[in-house]
UniProtKB/TrEMBL annotation, chain A:
Keyword flag Oxidoreductase: yes
Subunit structure: Heterodimer of an alpha and a beta chain.
Role this protein plays: The pyruvate dehydrogenase complex catalyzes the overall conversion of pyruvate to acetyl-CoA and CO2.
Domain of life from the UniProt record: Bacteria
Lineage of the organism: Bacteria, Pseudomonadati, Pseudomonadota, Alphaproteobacteria, Hyphomicrobiales
Organism of this sequence: Methylocapsa palsarum
Annotated keywords: Lipoyl, Oxidoreductase, Pyruvate, Thiamine pyrophosphate
Identification of the protein by name: Pyruvate dehydrogenase E1 component subunit beta
GO molecular function ontology, one term from the record: pyruvate dehydrogenase (acetyl-transferring) activity
Annotated region described as Disordered, given as residue ranges: 105-127
Chemical reaction(s) catalysed: N(6)-[(R)-lipoyl]-L-lysyl-[protein] + pyruvate + H(+) = N(6)-[(R)-S(8)-acetyldihydrolipoyl]-L-lysyl-[protein] + CO2
GO terms for biological process, alphabetical: pyruvate decarboxylation to acetyl-CoA
Enzyme class (EC, first level): oxidoreductase
TrEMBL record, chain B:
Species: Methylocapsa palsarum
SUPFAM superfamilies: Thiamin diphosphate-binding fold (THDP-binding) (SSF52518)
Domain named Dehydrogenase E1 component: residues: 36-334
An MF annotation (GO) of this entry: pyruvate dehydrogenase (acetyl-transferring) activity
Reaction catalysis annotation: N(6)-[(R)-lipoyl]-L-lysyl-[protein] + pyruvate + H(+) = N(6)-[(R)-S(8)-acetyldihydrolipoyl]-L-lysyl-[protein] + CO2
Oxidoreductase recorded as keyword: yes
Protein name in UniProt: Pyruvate dehydrogenase E1 component subunit alpha
Keyword Repressor among record annotations: no
Keywords: Oxidoreductase, Pyruvate, Thiamine pyrophosphate
Gene: pdhA
Annotated region described as Disordered, given as residue ranges: 1-23
Class of the enzyme per the UniProt entry, highest EC level: oxidoreductase
GO BP annotations, alphabetical order: pyruvate decarboxylation to acetyl-CoA
Requisite cofactors: thiamine diphosphate
């Protein structure tokens, strides 16, 4: 009897990793708990432990291999006295094959062509140029572009602003010594020291309030929430203390603070850790709310947010952290807050989205193109203040609009966009606006249910055709 | 039940207070300063209550009458650049910080020259110039904010401290203890002043607090605390001086529990049925902070009856001017509705 050792997932959103090196060789005896190999992603390095006893019969993936997919068999352990020939019949492998078969079956069903967590991310850097992403208008022609992940872009934005202004500091859980729960703050402690990179206890309510107090005193704190789900603990301070104080003081007080962290669904972490707060925060006067999609926007908008004299909610997305985009190589690249971006020009229908919703929107646009529909895709980038003009101008051209978001439909961002179009472009509409949103349920855990709860490309394509009466 | 007073018997036995005996006397100048400051707060608050009754002040209005010695004594040790932050019972703190009574009163009446241009009201006023950071309406919310002001002092390498005031009610809020933890962990220069006026709205301390000695509330975090007779401005100043010195020396936070009493209801709309008239009367007659100073001024011959009358008249004139200003100042321009949301 042999057992396959599979490439493990280090986090709910990991799909690929590097098999750094083997610590055991073929022929070595192994027992449960032995460390077989080291693997790493851009977030962390971890060890692969043996679960079974026997002999490391065969190494299937050599040390140093990049982009090894999760669940790929990387080695075979044979029980004492056996050979390594029957690797495909092990229970683990059979289970993996079964899941893969389920996926394939669902993929054939037009009613459930939801994108999976595995196909949501963009392909690696070399292929990302194929996505139809119009360059940010803020970039001068001829600017050199460099490939960069959203994670790296966010880190660069913070580091640049911290170099520029001593009053900027970052605080949050695990931002310093741990290097960030999602490695966004990697290296900042080393460069800026513990005065400016501050690990907090797990007390969101008070460290948010503490940051707001420091901002009222004139510092420029960046408060990282490990995820925005935990910002619920701090909601009172964010709304009542940060957003309202300027108004309540007749303009005398200022609160230049950025609250940032991953927002929305990650993968398989269920209801309490999978919530999109876009609509919640964008409801509140006195806040600015940003939700970027590309690395360039993440960088340019985070730098603008840090310099902004108002409280800014900066909603990131865990799944996008590892996505690679072209980022302009400029000394001081700023993207203005409150300006949307035409990500793809088109004539027939306007699709409006933001953050990870752009992944769905752009893929839907590509499918629509194959069917002869020329969709225009708008990336809002900022949710408050919302760039109404870019939406209205587009709808005047297309006469049709579909909104895409992961959040719940009621009182959502799509509802807001829909109302604005009615108020400002009603006479140009040739069809009612259609909202594609997360389903009106808490996020389920089961893989198939989670997939159903999120927006999917098929629904967007169907909505676009419906507003075109096709 | 043997005791048939208006409240239930306490479920938790309150401990006898333990006050420091180290209370240096005031000089003549200090007594006079304290007298003027406390009297200004008392007269201002009495007028505010009156204007509320006349409908000139709306919403919630929480008066500081009875508690004047606390902020007055603490401000006697404050230095240039120190910060003050407190709850919604904030008029006294603003006056003690040196904010103009006319602008404070005009804010109470919701007028354009009010401290917050009429947009904040009784509970939300600020003065960066005077180091007053509000005026916060959510019970306990000012505690993390004040801790953050102290964080900024340390970050900038300044010797300043932040006096963070909150009541016995707020002392049970979770964010207070989250703040205590960080303040001690990072040795932040913050003095937590618990103004224990014995009632969180209508709930007495013994009915709401498992540990009624608030000076011990920092023990889990190693934060030292002291119980103070908050009706005696000299005791307040002495304790504040010790706490400020502790903080300025880089030792981290300190807690001062000021035992005090508010004569009026929680807010203007509170009939205060949860306590007896006799209880209030006893405090007024035996412990009034202003009367204590007045008696000493006369006994020590620092001032004559005539001198004190002259001071009273002077204070009344300041308050009358504020009332006059606040009654005649126009309401905010309607265009102000849309300003000061963002910069």
């Amino acid at each position: 009897m042999t057992t396959n050792v599979l490439m493990p997932a280090l986090s709910p959103t990991m799909e690929h990793g590097k098999l750094t090196k083997w610590l055991k060789s073929e022929g070595d005896a192994v027992k449960s708990g032995d460390i077989l190999a080291e693997i790493e992603t851009d977030k962390a390095t971890m060890e692969v432990e043996a679960v079974d006893e026997g002999t490391l019969a065969k190494i299937l993936v050599p040390g140093g291999a990049e982009n090894v997919a999760v669940n790929t068999p990387i080695a075979i352990i044979a029980a004492a006295g056996e050979s390594a020939s029957a690797e495909a019949s092990t229970p683990e492998t059979a289970a993996v094959q079964k899941i893969a078969a389920l996926d394939a079956k669902e993929g054939e069903d037009p009613q459930s062509d939801a994108i999976t967590a595995a196909d949501a991310p963009l392909p690696p850097a070399d292929a990302s140029g194929k996505m139809e992403i119009a360059p940010a208008t803020e970039v001068p022609a001829g600017t050199e572009m460099v490939a960069m992940t959203v994670r790296e872009a966010l880190r660069e934005a913070m580091a640049e602003e911290m170099r520029r202004d001593d009053s900027v500091f970052i605080m949050g859980e695990e931002v310093a010594e741990y290097q960030g729960a999602y490695k966004i703050t990697q290296g900042l402690l080393e460069e800026f020291g513990e005065r400016r990179v501050v690990d907090t206890p797990i007390t969101e309510h008070a460290f948010a309030g503490l940051g707001i107090g420091a901002a009222m005193a004139g510092l420029r704190p960046i408060v990282e929430f490990m995820t925005f789900n935990f910002a619920m603990q701090a909601m009172d301070q964010i709304i009542n203390s940060a957003a309202k104080t300027r108004y309540m003081s007749g303009g005398q007080m200022s609160c230049p603070i950025v609250f940032r962290g991953p927002n929305g669904a990650a993968a398989r972490v269920a209801a309490q850790h999978s919530q999109d707060y876009s609509a919640w925060f964008s409801h509140v006067p006195g806040l600015k709310v940003i939700a970027p999609y590309t690395a360039a926007d993440a960088k340019g908008l985070l730098k603008s947010a840090i310099r902004d004299p108002n409280p800014v909610i900066f909603l990131e997305n865990e799944i996008l952290y590892g996505h690679t985009f072209e980022v302009p190589k400029l000394d001081d690249f700023l993207v203005p807050i409150g300006k949307g971006r035409i990500a793809r020009e088109g004539r027939d229908v306007t699709i409006v989205s933001f953050s990870i919703g752009m992944v769905y929107a752009l893929k839907a646009a590509a499918e629509l193109e194959a069917e002869g529909v020329d969709a225009e895709v708008i990336d809002l980038r900022t949710l408050r203040p919302m760039d109404s003009a870019i939406i209205v101008e587009s709808v005047k051209k297309t006469g049709r609009c579909v909104t895409v978001e992961e959040g719940w439909p009621q009182s959502g961002v799509g509802a807001e966009i829909s109302a604005r179009i009615m108020e400002d472009a009603f006479d140009y509409l040739d069809a009612p606006v259609v909202r594609i949103a997360g389903k009106d349920v808490p996020m389920p855990y089961a893989a198939n249910l989670e997939k159903l709860a999120l927006p999917n490309i098929g629904d967007i394509v169907a909505a676009a055709k419906a507003v075109l009466y096709r | 039940m043997a005791n048939s007073s208006t409240t239930d018997a306490p479920s938790v036995q309150e401990e006898a207070p333990h006050y420091s005996q180290d209370v240096p006397p005031f000089t003549k100048e200090e007594e006079l300063l304290a007298y003027r400051k406390m009297l200004l707060i008392r007269r201002f608050e009495e007028k505010a209550g009156q204007l509320y009754g006349m409908g000139l002040i709306g919403g919630f209005c929480h008066l500081y009458i009875g508690q004047e010695a606390i902020v007055t004594g603490i401000m006697m040790v404050a230095q240039e650049g120190d910060q003050t932050i407190t709850s919604y019972r904030d008029h006294g703190h603003m006056l003690a910080c040196g904010m103009d009574p006319s602008f404070v009163m005009a804010e109470l009446t919701g007028r354009r020259s009010g401290q917050s241009k009429g947009k904040g009201g009784s509970m939300h006023m600020f003065s960066k110039e005077k180091g007053f950071f509000g005026g916060h309406g959510i019970v306990g919310a000012q505690v993390p904010l004040g801790t953050g002001l102290a964080f900024a002092n340390l970050y900038r390498g300044q010797q300043n401290i932040c006096f963070t005031y909150f009541g016995d009610g707020a002392a049970n809020q979770g964010q207070v203890y989250e703040s205590f933890n960080m303040a001690e962990l990072w040795k932040l220069p913050v003095v937590y002043v618990v103004e224990n006026n014995r009632y969180a709205m209508g709930t007495s301390v013994s009915r709401s607090s498992a540990l009624t000695d608030f000076s011990k509330r920092g023990q889990s975090f190693n934060i030292p605390g002291e119980q103070v007779d908050g009706m005696d401005v000299r005791a307040v100043r002495a304790a504040a001086g010790r706490a400020a010195a502790w903080c300025r020396a880089g030792n981290g936070p300190m807690i001062l529990e000021m035992q005090t009493y508010r004569y009026r209801g929680h807010s203007m709309s509170d009939p205060a049925k949860y306590r007896s008239k006799e209880e209030v009367q006893k405090m007024r007659e035996e412990h009034d902070p202003i009367e204590q100073v007045r008696a000493r001024l006369l006994a020590n011959e620092y001032a004559s009856e005539a001198d004190l009358k002259a001071i009273d008249a002077e204070i009344r004139a300041i308050v009358s001017k504020a009332v006059d200003f606040a009654s005649h100042d126009p309401e905010p321009d309607p265009a102000e509705l849309w300003t000061d949301v963002l910069q």
